[in-house]
Amino acid sequence: MIKRILLIITIIIVVFFVLLVIRGNEDIWLCVNGEWIKHGNPQAPMPTENCLKGKSEKPESNIIVDLPKIDEAIGLPLIIIGQARVFESQFNYRLKDEDGTILTEGLGMANSPDAGFYGQFIIEANYPQPKGFSGTVEVFDYSAKDGTEIDKVIVPIKFKEVEALTINVYFNNDRLDPEFSCNKVFPVERRIAKTQAVARAALEELLKGPASQERADGFITNINQGVKINSLNIENGVAQVDFDEMLEFQVGGSCRVAAISAQIMETLKQFPTVKDVIISINSRTEDILQP
Asked: What is the C-alpha separation between 62 and 60, in angstroms, rounded?
């Protein structure tokens, strides 16, 4: 009998404290999926700090954009930093200006350790002159089921004034040159931040390959993805540019070799200080880019 009475008293005490806790938490701000949600009628204003700060769990979205922040003013190049947990670690991004025109778009890659894990990503992309002073950055994936855009993150941004240069990069084009004469290349304009190393910046743009709209217009590159510039020196009208071994990796055929050389040479020869170009791979000039 005494045990039963003690049990009843214990239950009453537990229920009392549970009700007290619930009552004390009626009027609070709750962090739900990365957003502050009002619960009850809290007297305090909505917290201003990131409600995920200090928490180990991530929001449910498979794509997280850390930069740019909402309404951040961006310059050249556009830099997007975040995390993604997507199929084959590959996703899409685009930048739109005030009237919805797509300024740049492309593919991004997260360095995920394995399937189902988040991986960090950093994207750098130049873009043409925007209309207006505001726009949006979009990062998303395509559904394998129906091709719709999923896990989409939209970040409103502002454009800040920058000192910019317009340079050309040269690609083959199977529409402008249907017979594909190999060494015939055509210019595409790129807008970059003002720099003293403009020739190297032009080569970096060339190595990125054609943008989505440029590909739709028939522009193609014969240069492998992932090629790195070891060095570039311009002296007495001669540009000596040294690349890593990716430039000639699995490159075959005299036509492709000629196209690669033409893309590099014409991109550099647009500058009045360059009259001739010497291409090397890891300091080798002999027996490179062999058909």
From this structure: 6
Question: Would you say the C-alpha torsion 256, 257, 261, 262 has a positive or negative sign?
Answer: negative
pLDDT digit string, tens, across residues 83-141: 999 999 999 999 999 999 999 999 999 999 998 899 999 999 999 999 999 999 999 99
Residue 44 falls inside a structural domain: no
Domain total of the chain: 3
Q: Which domain holds residue 96?
A: 63-159
159, 185, 207 - which closes a domain: 159
Sheet with 219-220, strands from edge to edge, namely 186-193, 164-173, 219-220
Find out whether 65 and 137 touch, Cβ atoms under 8 Å: yes
DSSP H or E segment with residue 280? strand 276-281
In sequence order, the 6+-apart residues with CB closer than 8 A to the CB of 89 are 109, 110, 111, 112, 119
Task: Confirm whether 133 is domain-assigned.
Answer: yes
Give the position of tokens 């975040």: 82
Please indicate, yes or no, whether residues 135 and 218 belong to a single structural domain of this protein: no
* Residue 202: CB atoms within 10 Å: 23
Rounded Cα distance between 272 and 199, Å, is: 11
Tell me the residue type at 138. Answer: E
- Is residue 251 one of the residues assigned to a domain? yes
- Of 176, 189, 178, 170, nearest to 258 (Cα)? 170
- Same structural domain for residues 170 and 148? no
Q: What's this model's pTM, rounded to 2 decimal places?
A: 0.73
Assess whether 68 and 11 both reside in one domain: no
Q: Is 187 within a domain? A: yes
Query: What contacts 76, CB < 8 A, 6 or more positions away?
Result: 126, 127, 162, 164, 191, 192, 193
pLDDT digits (tens, 9 = 90+) for 159-183: 999 999 999 999 999 999 998 889 9
